[in-house]
Specification:
Four Helix Bundle (Hemerythrin (Met), subunit A); globular
Length: about 180
């Protein structure tokens, strides 16, 4: 068995990184120093960190479970799903002129009329907080402190697949609604 402290320390660092990442944006807002460059820089560096972390998960699952190649394949599929979802979300951010991918969630609420949201849309809207770093970093932290890499891996792989499903489902209506809101 691998030393527990490594996983626990990784969880603490990941949670601290999430807290510090949140602080810089809040400080910029309070000091009225927000900029488009800062928003884009923050978004891009966050996504590089996520990608690096999820690639590290692949090494971890391969090391811990070399006899279960399907776990590795699911992880690779999840990273592919994340890249697809990010591509769509970055496209939306470019079209709306905002560097924060959190605005994708705001756009979903604003640009898709309530009467067009079926049950799946309402569920996705209700549980969108799961895709926010504040939430998933804390779940990662708990899994690491509890020594459950397998649960952490399953949560992350499942979550990334659900994210791409939600983004693919919502993006067509969102872009149509955004076009209507901005005019021809």
């Amino acid at each position: 068995p691998e030393p527990y402290w490594r996983l626990a320390l990784a969880g603490v660092f990941w949670q601290m990184a999430a807290v510090l990442d949140r602080c810089d944006g809040e400080i910029a807002r309070v000091k009225l120093c927000e900029s488009k460059f800062g928003a884009w820089f923050d978004t891009i560096t966050d996504n590089i960190a996520y990608l690096a972390t999820y690639v590290a998960f692949l090494f971890g699952v391969q090391h811990l479970h070399p006899d279960k190649p399907w776990a590795l394949y699911f992880g690779i599929s999840a990273i592919g799903a994340m890249i697809v979802a990010l591509g769509i979300m970055y496209n939306y951010a470019l079209k709306t002129g905002n560097g924060s991918l959190q605005n994708y969630l705001v756009g979903f609420r604003a640009h898709v009329p309530a009467h067009e949201k079926n049950g799946i849309y309402r569920v996705l809207e209700r549980y969108a907080f799961i895709a926010k770093r504040d939430f998933f970093a804390f779940v990662h932290f708990l899994c690491c402190v509890l020594g459950s890499f397998e649960l952490l891996y399953a949560y992350t792989v499942g979550g990334l697949h659900l994210l791409v499903f939600a983004v693919l489902l919502s993006q067509r209506k969102m872009l149509a609604g955004q076009r209507l809101a901005t005019g021809p």
